[in-house]
Structure to design on (153 residues):
């Protein structure tokens, strides 16, 4: 490594700041705040939006590389489809949000493996992706566990 970074300090700071909404949602649920159910829904929506955003990043990297296979594009659309599928139990009144938050958190935790498999990401970007995915994935799983307690499940 030559010590050069493709990421600006602003990209790093704002990336880590992106964990703040999930921290707030988790704190609201753990504190028993009257809006705890809204915080669970908001935490799911935020994690699902970020997961979908990652698919957009993979799509853009695939296009920019000029060497992507069909598989890369299939991987890129998967986060949005999975996020919608995880939202469906809530729309039907089934067991939600705990299980969906757990699955979504696990998918986010594992998402840098897709970056690595695709091979389009710069090393410093991939390192930041690991940090942020461990953070958001872990917080989302914690929110899912807290949701079970808050819902009395």
């Amino acid at each position: 490594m030559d010590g050069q970074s493709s990421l600006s300090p602003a990209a790093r700071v704002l990336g880590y700041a992106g964990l703040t909404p999930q921290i707030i949602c988790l704190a609201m649920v753990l504190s028993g705040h009257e809006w705890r159910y809204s915080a669970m829904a908001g935490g799911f929506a935020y994690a699902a939006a970020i997961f979908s955003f990652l698919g957009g990043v993979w799509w853009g990297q695939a296009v920019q590389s000029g060497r992507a296979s069909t598989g890369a594009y299939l991987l890129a659309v998967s986060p949005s489809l999975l996020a919608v599928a995880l939202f469906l139990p809530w729309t039907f009144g089934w067991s939600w949000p705990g299980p969906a938050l757990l699955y979504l958190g696990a998918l986010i935790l594992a998402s840098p493996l897709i970056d690595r498999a695709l091979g389009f990401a710069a090393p410093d970007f991939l390192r930041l992706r690991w940090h942020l995915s461990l953070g958001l994935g872990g917080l989302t799983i914690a929110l899912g566990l807290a949701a079970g307690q808050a819902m009395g499940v």
